[in-house]
Design goal:
Blueprint: H1 2-47, H2 49-56, H3 63-105, H4 107-121, H5 127-161, H6 171-181, H7 183-213, H8 216-260, H9 269-281, H10 288-300, H11 304-328, H12 337-351, H13 353-371
Helix pairs in contact: 1-7, 2-3, 3-5, 3-7, 4-5, 8-9, 8-11, 10-11, 12-13
Length: 380
Amino acid sequence: MNVVEKYRGRLIKVAYFALLLGAFYLFMKYAFTLFLPFMIAFVIATLLQKPVDRLSKNKYISRGFASAALSLLVYAIIGTLIAFVGVWLVGELKSFFEFLAGKFNALPEFIGMLEGKILNFIKFLPDKMEASAAAKISEWAKLLSEDTAAGASSIGGALLSKFDFSLLASPLSGIVSTAMQLPSFLIAFVITIISTCFLTTDYGRLKNFVKRQLPKDRVEGISSGKKILKKSLKNLGKAYLAIMGITFVEMLIGLLILRLIGILHTDYIFVIAFITAIVDIFPIFGTGTILIPWSLYSLVTGNYGMALGIIIIYIVISVLRQFIEPKMVATNLGLPPIVTIAGIYIGLKLFGVLGVFIVPIIVIMIKLLNDEGILHLWNK
């Protein structure tokens, strides 16, 4: 009987978590965008509670006025940052993607250079073996060149079509034109602002209402979990933002040095450093995703100084990160790399680009809660 009860308990537990996973999948797939304005409003309303409490202590300022004023101020700051930084960044990215499109058109020439390098390399082989290998290499290079030449323009066009920056020729016309084409986005944005004002005002009352609907022990568990997650994710976010900033600065300094000594000839140093810093944050990518192919390309095209310079930048960034990351990431998550990779892959397949960010964060949250004993999914 004990064995039956034991297995029945396990089956119930498995079924319970299967239902939770199913509900999470359905929510992310079909309801996430619907509830996104309210989730953003809830996060901002939570962050604004302390400032609103301080302001509303003044007898001349009501809580409703303080909530509305601070909410509007937050969105005004966010909008201003997006307007100034976004317009500059969009202009830079537009030029950068046009530059990449030009590089795609030069791929057949690069393949020819690579073929020549490989053919020179295999000259040490016996004559018959060299002739056979050379024929195969030439055949593959020809096929690859033809396919690349046929598809290069379409690839470059596809890249540029994904980023239609013509609306942002000037900040004002860009914002107005984009707004006219995205009414649903504007409606969602207005709903988010209004929801933030109301949630900030009624946060305490709504919080007490939810508490009254739950058992006391469950309320305490949720409160403890909230504090743990808030502190852990805050520290983790600060650490990785700092690491991303350090990578950006290291990359920027390295590229500026290469440019000053006359090795690098490009106007996209800031954009390259920015993209590299973002890619570096992902566990399965890192700076090598960009720097290693770049150095190999430079090596094949005969730009040996550039290849050496990029490899040195890569080594410096990698070595410094090994020292910086353990010290800056205050919370040691202890997640096996395979779990992180699986989370990113599954998130990408199920929910697209958004899942790349959300699923690993969910995994991190579950582990933190399990480590603190709030969840009991596995033994520590």
